[in-house]
Design brief:
With about 300 residues, the protein is mainly α. Helices cover about 80% and strands about 0% of the residues.
Length: about 300
């Protein structure tokens, strides 16, 4: 039953969220709390004594942050909404589930888990400033909009890290309990994905400026960005002896967080980017897993 749910959970969550968007959109305020709990459980899996920031992490982070800004700057000259949709696909931090795929592909899970932490914390720190210049808060004074966004982003992304460390340091029993229950994050992810898809569809349906041409361009652009990030991450990872962790760290994104950020801070159409990225990254991962199984067969 669990295996079937893992295989069909993604499409079922997407279809359910889209079909029942009127209902699931009502639960949108719960998304930050779900993300908080998922990150907390994931951080409890990390072996704090083995964590070490490497040059690979710095390269990946530079591409994630600087690349997203450069991409936005170039595409914005043609279409600001498309630029927002592709920007969020690149800025989004590494998915909490990336460590699982990394292990299945034979990569270094500790390296990937460390970058997941670094990536999420970096987005929490820089996103208030970035969204102050990009999106719906540009008309507000910089510090006012930055503080407004920080009040939403920082507790959701940084507090789980602090809570995980406090559990590890002072409440080891609770830390071990969460460490043994990593599967919970998968079910929470399905719930969050259903809600965030419902919220996205509700935003688009109620949006008067829907343009199918723009949506198609954003979706196809997300495909290009997805493949480019996986390939670039693998190439950089190969230089540092960890091809798999490099590819997954840069390519596999926390799409639930990305859709939520796009829906809150950017034009509603921009959420098409991370929404379609869900499909593209899962296609890439499925291909990688099948290719890996073929190679290991006797």
């Amino acid at each position: 039953m669990q295996k079937k749910l893992q295989e069909w959970g993604l499409p079922l969550a997407l279809v359910a969220g889209a079909a029942g968007y009127r209902l699931f959109a009502l639960f949108a305020p719960a998304i930050p709390y779900l993300i908080f709990v998922m990150l907390l459980i994931t951080y409890c899996k990390i072996s704090w004594g083995e964590m070490k920031i490497r040059r690979l992490h710095l390269w990946l982070l530079t591409i994630q942050l600087c690349g997203s800004l450069a991409l936005y700057g170039v595409v914005r000259m043609a279409d600001p909404i498309v630029a927002q949709g592709l920007f969020i696909c690149m800025l989004a931090p590494t998915a909490t589930a990336a460590a699982v795929i990394t292990g299945m592909l034979g990569g270094n899970v500790t390296t990937l888990a460390t970058y997941t932490l670094v990536s999420n914390l970096a987005v929490a720190v820089v996103s208030p400033a970035l969204f102050s210049f990009i999106g719906i808060h540009v008309e507000q004074p910089f510090w006012e909009s930055s503080l407004l966004i920080a009040r939403q982003m920082v507790p959701m992304l940084i507090f789980p890290f602090l809570a995980g460390w406090l559990f590890y340091r002072f409440i080891p029993k609770a830390h071990r309990a969460l460490q043994k229950r990593q599967n919970i994050t998968f079910y929470l992810w399905l719930v969050a994905l259903t809600i965030v898809m419902g919220h996205t569809v509700a935003s688009l349906v109620g949006h008067a400026r829907i343009h199918f041409r723009t949506e198609i361009i954003i979706a196809l652009g997300a495909l290009v960005i997805c493949v480019a990030q996986f390939l670039t991450g693998r190439r950089i990872g190969r230089r540092f002896g960890d091809t798999v962790a490099g590819g997954q760290g840069l390519g596999q994104k926390n799409t639930v967080l990305a859709i939520w950020m796009a829906g809150i801070y950017l034009d509603p159409l921009a959420s098409i980017g991370p929404a379609s990225y869900i499909f593209w990254q899962n296609i890439v991962n499925s291909w990688q897993l099948r290719r890996n199984r073929t190679r290991t067969l006797p």
